[in-house]
Design brief:
117 residues, mainly beta, 4-stranded antiparallel sheet, 11 strands, globular
């Protein structure tokens, strides 16, 4: 059974930081590209950042470049998203997703991030 479980979301003030984690099981993590998406109220889900299976390649949305950092630990089957200098417009539900070699995509249940004073 495939599972992707996000954690680390919460309420933070503008300028603050959060670290999201996505712990996975049920598929070959080390062969899969991983991404973080987010969806704000009333908006479409958007790609935040992706990382290749080895971690050598990343692709950030312009809106988060220089503030967010994705990383992965293939030994722990976990991907992380370090978010610094958070802005109110970063408020959204953040989803972890995996894309396997067979082009299957799996999603987590999401974690809420709220940036507000």
């Amino acid at each position: 059974q495939v599972q992707l479980v996000e954690s680390g979301g919460g309420l933070v003030q503008p300028g603050g930081s959060l670290r999201l984690s996505c712990t996975t099981s049920g598929f070959t993590f080390s062969n899969s590209g991983m991404s973080w998406y987010r969806q704000a109220p009333g908006k479409e889900r958007e790609l935040v950042v992706g990382i290749s299976s080895t971690g050598a390649g990343t692709n950030y949305a312009d809106s988060v470049k220089g503030r967010f950092t994705i990383s992965r630990d293939n030994a722990k089957n976990t991907v992380y998203l370090q978010m610094n200098s958070l802005k109110p417009e970063d408020t959204a539900v953040y989803y972890c997703t995996a894309k396997t070699l067979s082009y299957r995509r799996y999603w987590g249940q999401g974690t809420q991030v709220t940036v507000s004073s």
